[in-house]
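Private note to self, pasted from the team thread so I don't lose it. Backbone tokens:
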């Protein structure tokens, strides 16, 4: 017996439910494709990620032993993050690709520092990035160790980004388990871009200094930062 179905006041045979299901599947597939595209767009980011290797040029940053400069470690790790983000289809731009500053010559130490940071802020804002990550290593505080993410006090997005990166940094074997903290920094305070400062370890701690100079450990740090950025861009916490 042929089954008859009623649709819109007319009678159809049983092929109709299959047509309806077919249409529903097409609509579902299209919606799924749209969702997938939206997710990959949000991960890839329409705008770039900017990585700021802290210090450079006249300003070496922290120095705790001869020939070991914070600025060099910051640049090495920043370049690794750029490469790893590119491997995930995320465009990253560095505020400096080599050993340079933007202090533009003369002036007091304070004026030079501010000129340099103001230039970096202008550079970053001109790129209209999704986020800004400024990379540093720390010194001082006895035998302190561990990587730490800082966000500007009052910035909810900064907090979310810092927590995403901190969560990944904590996974590195042997890492001191620090938590993301708010702070006051010239760079994060003077930009509307969601920005965080990473202090990736202590040069003043001889054990950590040795690790921070190792290619393997720099890769571990860069992997963690990359994973944290990806989680943040994907809307994760
Ligand atoms: Zn620094």
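Design output:
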């Amino acid at each position: 017996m042929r089954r008859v179905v009623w649709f819109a006041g007319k009678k159809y045979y049983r092929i109709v439910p299959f047509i309806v299901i077919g249409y529903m599947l097409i609509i579902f597939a299209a919606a799924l494709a749209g969702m997938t595209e939206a997710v990959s767009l949000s991960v890839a980011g329409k705008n770039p990620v900017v990585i700021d290797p802290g210090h450079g040029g006249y300003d070496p940053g922290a120095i705790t032993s001869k020939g070991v400069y914070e600025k060099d470690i910051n640049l090495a790790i920043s370049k690794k993050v750029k490469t790893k983000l590119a491997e995930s289809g995320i465009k990253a731009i560095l505020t400096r690709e080599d050993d340079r500053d933007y202090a533009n010559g003369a002036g007091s130490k304070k004026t030079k520092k501010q000129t340099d940071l103001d230039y970096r802020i202008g550079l970053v804002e001109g790129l209209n990035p999704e986020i800004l990550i400024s990379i540093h290593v720390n010194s001082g505080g006895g035998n302190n160790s561990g990587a730490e993410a800082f966000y500007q006090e009052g910035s909810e997005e900064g907090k979310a980004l810092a927590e995403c990166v901190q969560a990944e940094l904590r996974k590195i074997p042997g890492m001191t388990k620090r938590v993301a903290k708010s702070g006051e920094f010239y760079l994060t305070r003077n930009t509307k871009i969601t920005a965080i400062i990473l202090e990736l370890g202590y040069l003043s701690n001889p054990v950590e200094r040795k690790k921070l100079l190792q290619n393997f450990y720099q890769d571990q740090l860069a992997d963690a930062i990359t994973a944290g950025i990806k989680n943040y861009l994907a809307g994760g916490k």
